[in-house]
Amino acid sequence: MKKITELTDLRGKRVILRASLNVPVADGVVTNEYRITQMLPTLRYLHEQGAKTIIMGHIGRDKDESLKPILAVLERYYPVVWGGSVNENRAKEHLAVLPDGQFLLLENLRQDERESDNDEAWGEHLASFGDVFVNDAFDNAHREHASMIQIPKHIPAYAGLTMMAEVEHLMRVMQPEHPALFMIGGAKFETKMPLVEKFLATYDHVFVSGALMNDIFKARGYEVGTSLVSDVDLTGAPFLDNPKLLVPMDVIVTGPRGVVTKLASEVAADEAIMDAGPQTVEMLKTYISEAKTVLWNGPFGNFEGGFASATEETMKALAESDALSVVGGGDTVAAIEKLGLNDSLGFVSTGGGAMLTLLEHGSTPALDALN
To answer: May I ask the CATH architecture of the domain 174-360?
Structure first.
């Protein structure tokens, strides 16, 4: 990939910056600024090089969602003008009078369905706003969307500083220093099984939790009650007997008897597994203390439902470790933010699905487009 640092003296140049702006908003206010603050080094570089920067991005899945709340955050750092929709003439009118070193924020690209459809003509329209394209939206790098894939076909394309850092750190942990521990949570084993199998071959231990552990328990003949399980049937899967595979020893369940901690083999038919238990956390602390590389994606329990104990206690242990750590996934990062541990971990990724795609395939559609 060509890197943004190869661009110098951009005065008078129009630079399209595809940014990570998909952040949580409540009552018109951004409630978590992590992805925005991570792109500040890229903004600083473009500002110092005198570029007229057009910031493009998306937020949420609903067409009615707006990037307007992002403006209030960006304005704390640099001069930013609201440009509205890319389909309105005023966007280019604002751009025509934008001073060097300043920024124009455009509206949510996904308000137009051609963005998600990866429409070629739409991508060409987006490219007409700039002379140079900088992609810094790693969180969306696994999506084949027009702003990610089509713009680089029309103007010179570069990776932003955040994108560069993501790729460098994730490539590094794909060839880990041993002992190496990979921890994965969340749901949908059908999409994550290839990753589990891949890292069982390259890492010393792979710990599986979240809803994924329910699929393993079920395949091993354990009762999982009313727990969330995937559509995939793991019965007979070779990796189930791999000695490197780790799963929770104890779990926290909910049911008629309330919230109870019990061994994984003791779950009743009327109970649902919600989190890994305290014995499991103690086990992980031992592996983390011995590890030189720790890679982690996804929470260990029903995080949004309030079952965050195993995730948070393990995160505290990782923050005290000397291991090279790379952590990603929306709820995982939320735990880091809640505990104030951003500066205590090695690298915190802005991507969830993009991180998993890069780890599994060694690239993503957006990275291929930059290359």
So the answer is: 3-Layer(aba) Sandwich (3.40)
